[in-house]
Structures are given as C-alpha cells and as structure tokens.
Specification:
single chain, 100 residues, alpha+beta, four-stranded antiparallel sheet, 3 helices, 36% helix, globular
C-alpha cells in the first residue's frame, strides 16, 4: 500500500484574525493526533519569495498510511465538524493528493 500526501493550500479571508488562523491549525493538529491513519502533519504560512502563491497564505500537509486512511479521514465526523468551523474563514483552498 502506498502512503498518500494530502496537500492543502489555503487563502484565509481578509477578516480572519490571527487567533482564528491559529485555532484552525491547532484543530488540524488535533485531527492528526486523533484520526487513525494519519502519520504526519506539518503546516505554516507562505514565505516564498517567488510570488507564485496565487493568493494562498498558508499550507498544510497530511501524510496518510494509504488511500483508504485518507478516504476515511474525509468522511470522519471530527473532520466534518472541523470543516464546518474552518470553511467560513477561508476564501479559497486548493487540494492535491499523491501517492508515494
């Protein structure tokens, strides 16, 4: 079984406070520690000097043990609850997954 990298590029709405951004990433960290099949989580604000971020302000990456773990995460009740809080804070999100 191949591991899966789940990469999300996020642009928060202008009115989203730094505290709300921190809460969002703290919640993602909590998900990474409580949902089975997540092997790793990293996140951070964009700091690229290339100016190719297309407005995205932050990024995060989950490493899943396999595609089945990724699929289970997407429908997991804790993830669904997270999206209900986080999505109103987000202007746009781009997600790309690939297998290792």
């Amino acid at each position: 079984m191949a591991r899966v990298k789940h990469i999300a590029l996020v642009q928060f709405k202008a009115e989203t406070t730094p505290e709300q951004i921190d809460e969002t990433f703290d919640s993602l960290l909590d998900l990474s520690e409580s949902i089975p099949g997540i092997e790793d989580f990293i996140s951070g604000p964009n700091n690229s000097p290339e100016n190719l971020n297309a407005g995205h302000t932050h990024a995060f990456i989950f490493t899943f043990s396999d595609a089945a773990a990724r699929d289970a995460y997407l429908t997991h009740p804790d993830h669904v609850a997270f999206t209900q809080v986080a999505l109103p804070r987000i202007e746009k999100v781009t997600v790309v997954d690939f297998e290792l």
